[in-house]
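Page header: ASSEMBLY MODEL / two components / 228 residues total.
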Amino acid sequence: LAKTTQPISMDSYEGQEVNITCSHNNIATNDYITWYQQFPSQGPRFIIQGYKTKVTNEVASLFIPADRKSSTLSLPRVSLSDTAVYYCLVGGAGGYNKLIFGAGTRLAVHP
Amino acid sequence: GAGVSQSPSNKVTEKGKDVELRCDPISGHTALYWYRQRLGQGLEFLIYFQGNSAPDKSGLPSDRFSAERTGESVSTLTIQRTQQEDSAVYLCASSLGTLAGVPYEQYFGPGTRLTVT
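Prediction written out in full:
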C-alpha cells in the first residue's frame, strides 16, 4: 500500500481557502486518492475521491497533478465548523480494498 | 437507511477482564474494518473482512485481540485479558468494497469507548 505524508496540523481563519497537500510518492497505477474528515467524538466521514486532474463536489475540490505523486484537498471559505482532522488515503488498486488511515492533518479554523 | 451501529457505546472494565465489542454493518456491505483510535491520535487499522475471504489480521497488536464475522453480517471484536493501554475508541466501518478497482467509501459507526481501569 502506498504510504502517505501530510502535515500534522494547520491553522486558518474563517472565510479563507485552505489547501492541504498529501504526498504519496509510491502510488500504484490503479490507486485512487480519497480524503476523509473527522470531527471530535465521531467516526471519519468521506469527503472526496479522485484518480487524476481535478474533482469538485459541494464540499471540496481535489487537485491531482499529472505524476499523481501528491494531491491537494482544497476547502473554499472555511468556517469554524470545518475544524477537524483530515485524512488522505491511497489505495484500491487491483481490487485490493483495504485503505489505511494515517495520522491525518489537524485543521483549526479561528474566528 | 440505517447506518453502521456499534455496541456498547461505552465500556468500562477492569484490567485482566475480557471484553467483546459488536458492529452491525450496513446491509449489503461486503467489506468491514475495525480500527482503534487512542485519544488525540489517528486511526490504527486492526482487521479487515472482505466477503467470505480470509480476514486480513495484519493490524492486530497482539494475540489478545481477535475478531469474527459471519458472512456479511455482524462482527465482534474480542479483547482478552485487557490492559490499560487497550483504552481507546474502537471504530467499525463497512463499505461495498470496490467496483472495477474504484474503492467505495467507508461508512463509520459511532465507536465504542473502552476504558480499562
